[in-house]
Amino acid sequence: MMNKNLTQRQQEVFDFIQQYIEVNGYPPTLAEISEKLSIQPNAARTHLLLMQRKNVLRYVPNISRGIELLKQKRHGIPIYGTAPAGHPFLSQENVVENFEVRNYISASTDVFGVYVRGDSMKDAMLVSEDLVFVDPKKTPRNGEIVVALVEGEPTIKRYYKEANAIVLKPENKKYQPIIIQKSDDGFRILGVVIGVIRSLDKKKIDTLVEEHKAYGKASVN
Amino acid sequence: MMNKNLTQRQQEVFDFIQQYIEVNGYPPTLAEISEKLSIQPNAARTHLLLMQRKNVLRYVPNISRGIELLKQKRHGIPIYGTAPAGHPFLSQENVVENFEVRNYISASTDVFGVYVRGDSMKDAMLVSEDLVFVDPKKTPRNGEIVVALVEGEPTIKRYYKEANAIVLKPENKKYQPIIIQKSDDGFRILGVVIGVIRSLDKKKIDTLVEEHKAYGKASVN
DNA sequence: ATACATACTGTAAAAATATACATCATTGAT
DNA sequence: ATCAATGATGTATATTTTTACAGTATGTAT
Predict the structure, then answer these.
(1) What is the pLDDT of residues A81-138, one digit of tens each?
(2) Which mean pLDDT values do the consecutive 10-residue runs of chain B (221 residues) have?
(3) Which of A64, A67, A90, A202 could be a cystine partner for B64, CB 3.0 to 4.6 Å?
(4) Does domain B112-220 fall into CATH 3.20.20.70?
């Protein structure tokens, strides 16, 4: 994250502070900065004052470790509700909440993400390059979509528990269901899919719509 | 974020520290904590030492503001690549990256989110309750999906620029395109849709698949 | 050539912070 | 009934951290 306005030395100071906070959880003292850069505390102080003018950090005099890095406070994305007509839509007042994935998909703390590959779930609207969020703590119910390890390979399928076996159904007629016998080793449910996120560009939109419409025709065969 | 193991007083201390860091960017001194809770600095110190034993924070003696809150370091969600067979899939080594929406949808810094309502874009796989990410800085190209303000009402449609007008096409045969004359006032493009996120539970999955299959039948009529 | 901003050194002093005792009250567990 | 853990007070002291001066040097734009 190079700040174009900063001089080389200032950037070094900035980087050190950033790293220090990452490691320690609190900002460094002037002495710590100066030691690292082999300069005097006073020189470090000057840097902070100059950088403050450039608005990349806040330096509070007389406060030990009174350094706050600005800019990269880009946390969450504002979400606007459906504003009442008349109001300027994009105003602060219409911010309903701030987006944080963890809040949005509200799952246990150890959710993880996996990219979808292939088209075996395309009828459930999961296509290649989508990123699915998986909750490993959740026990799958029939019909839910799960990520499972079948013979060492991760796969995304619909889950159905039957008398003596577990059936993993793809959502695409081109593919056959996978049947897991109770004795099967090398099989493991990694978790339940609780969300998807898709990055859209024009090409992706077009592909999606094509596939979607093709489905209609295919189903008449 | 209530920590079950903490006593009430400890929770108060924890909450204050959290809030203080949020506001100032660096942790408080013992004196600041003690002042807020109307106790002696020494008492505050004891709390920190006790809480450290409970692993909710780190307190470094002799270091001013030497407090680091632990636990809520839950930033981003780990994303696993498709692991080579044999490797334990869910191991740290397979973490490809850490999920941050802003990185994922890679847009200008002022992206925002809006919830989708209605089914006018259902054929482009945008359904009610989906959250779309919108980039206000991006200029729409023909065929891209945009969020626009039409007579004060926000709406999501496909964008097409024609000789004398702009056409906003829904992706659902039930609805008619909206045609905007150049002179039209009260019309404004708010941004281009660059991503979607959907929270999935079993009910939502079922609804999606139902609608998706129904599309096939409808399109044969 | 001459400001001006950056990038320092070095030292003493001032201010901000943390800590060591000594002491006490309350509560829950053995 | 007593121990251990929590939650405190209060004061003097030690330590950490910042700051005020007083200088020096270098490059760059005017």
Answers:
(1) 543 333 345 554 455 565 666 667 766 667 788 888 888 887 788 888 888 888 888 8
(2) 72 93 94 93 93 92 94 59 42 57 68 83 81 87 89 85 89 89 81 88 67 47 30
(3) A64
(4) no
Between chains, do A202 and B141 touch, taking CB under 8 Å as contact?
yes
CB-based contact A117 B89, cutoff 8 Å: no
Same topology for domains A8-69 and A112-218, yes or no?
A: no
Chain B positions in Cβ-Cβ contact with residue A90 (cut-off 8 Å): 112, 136, 190
Q: Is B185 on the interface with A (CB under 8 A)?
A: no
User: In terms of DSSP H, where are the helices of chain B?
Assistant: 8-24, 30-36, 41-53, 101-105, 202-220
Neighbours of B69 (CB within 10 A): 17
What is the chain A residue with the closest CA to B90?
Answer: A190
Q: Of chain B residues 186-215, which have a CB less than 8 A from chain A?
A: 190, 193-202, 205-206, 208-209, 212-213, 215
**Which position among A4, A34, A38, A157 bears the catalytic label?**
A157
Label the pairing between strands A187-199 and B187-199.
antiparallel
Whether residue A74 contacts residue B109, with contact meaning beta carbons closer than 8 Å, is answered with: yes
Question: What ranges do the domains of chain A cover?
Answer: 8-69, 112-218
Work out if B64's Cβ lies within 7 angstroms of strand D.
yes
Amino acid letter at B5? N
CATH topology of domain B8-69: Arc Repressor Mutant, subunit A (1.10.10)
> In sequence order, which residues have a C-beta less than 8 Å from that of residue A133 and are 6 or more positions away?
A101, A105, A107, A111, A112, A113, A193, A194, A195, A196, A197, B77
Fold of domain A112-218: Umud Fragment, subunit A (2.10.109)
Per-residue pLDDT of chain A (221 residues; tens, 9 = 90+): 445 588 899 999 999 999 999 899 999 999 999 999 999 999 999 999 999 998 999 999 999 999 999 865 545 566 665 433 333 455 544 555 656 666 677 666 677 888 888 888 877 888 888 888 888 888 999 889 998 888 777 889 999 998 889 999 888 888 899 998 877 777 888 889 988 988 887 666 676 666 655 554 433 33
Chain A residues with CB-CB distance to B169 below 8 A: none
Catalytic residue among B34, B122, B157, B169: B157
Residue whose C-alpha is closest to residue B150's, from B189, B117, B201: B189
Of B104, B115, B193, the CB nearest to A131: B104
pLDDT at B120: 84
Q: Is the dihedral of CA A96, A99, A100, A101 positive or negative?
A: positive
B113–A contact, CB cutoff 8 A = yes
3-state DSSP assignment of residue A156:
strand
Nucleotide lying nearest to B60, CA to C1' measure: C18
